[in-house]
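[Archive record]
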Amino acid sequence: MNNATMKRNTIIRRVFGRVCGGVFWSGDPSVQCSCCSRTASWRRPVFGPAHLPLLPLMVWSLIAGRLGAADVTLFGMGKGQQFAQSVGSAPVLLASNAFTFQALVLARTNGVVTNATFKISTSPTVERQLTNTGSGTLWRYEDFANTQSQLDATYPTGNTFSRPTYTFTMHTVNDGTRAVVLDFWIQWPLLAISYPPTPQISNLSAAQQIDHTRDFTLQWNSLGGSPLTLVQLTVLDAASNVVFASPTPFSPGALDGTSTSIVIPAFSLPPGAALTGRLTAANTGLPNTNSYPGATGIATLAKDTQFPMTTRPAPPAPRLRLLAVSGSQVQLLATDLETNRLYHLQRSTNLAAWVNVALTNPPVTAVQFNDVPPPGPAKAYYRLRIGQ
């Protein structure tokens, strides 16, 4: 391992319930009383509009958050290849605009960056303008091509005989005008950034019938096996809101090149939804932390695969009815169940602490439960909980 790689390694890491006649039940995500039919709503998290994740903005934001008080926290660029995978098929490049170049400048706060541009050494007279996205802090440039050669002709990576450089010029309020340089090399001419393997989902068929009330494990191919490869999974709804995302790189549970699966926890996804998953893998260059003290510059080469995901409709509200109390035995009947769902029968004497009595994944829509509560309190309350 050479010194450049070693340096890179060093830098780069509810429930409401209602008691009715002594029988209580609830289920997630819909909670409904069998007597009064009161229902609780299930809410899903929305993190905001989704952006093309070829440049891992969350990664860079994490890095930038560790830095000082410069007007710019990070600047960077990336080239990416975009794929789509359908059920039963391998990923294929998008029919158009499959290849992308992006550049960005992230300001520490609103108003401290007034302009940002970049030039490439192979076309020094062409100045490309980054546009403020309206957030006040993010300046962004994006371009697309239909082939890799077209992209490389405009935004070259270079080779052992030529190293194109990208000069970013950032006009700031407190730090003046800063010009800094990036390239797509770790150490020229010996070690260039390389593209990671193309992400491919290996259990995509199973992802078309996800029971959102249970954990779901999404699986994919090897992405090279390197802990330095940045990997991010995002799941978007039809309105392009992010409904699930894997942990930010370098945080506990984050994905990397050694990861080949992730558990999406129960109730993380909305029920009855057509979703789009995106699995992105990116290799990074050596961060530039010296040219602009307090700011970090970085280049990436990434591959992104988008794929369909579908969740089953929300289960119908089950009903739990008291059949009889015979001696110490309590007989209950659960109806309106759905096959291939998990149902937990739980018991409580105080509506605060609940104990699992039985677990069923029924092949039928009605199940009888027999329970013998422990000696003690004269009353016991029961409920059904759906899912894990």
Notes: The chain has two domains: 31-42+316-386, 44-310. Residues 124 and 189 are 22 Å apart (CA to CA). The radius of gyration is 27 Å. The helical segments are 3-11, 57-64, 148-154.
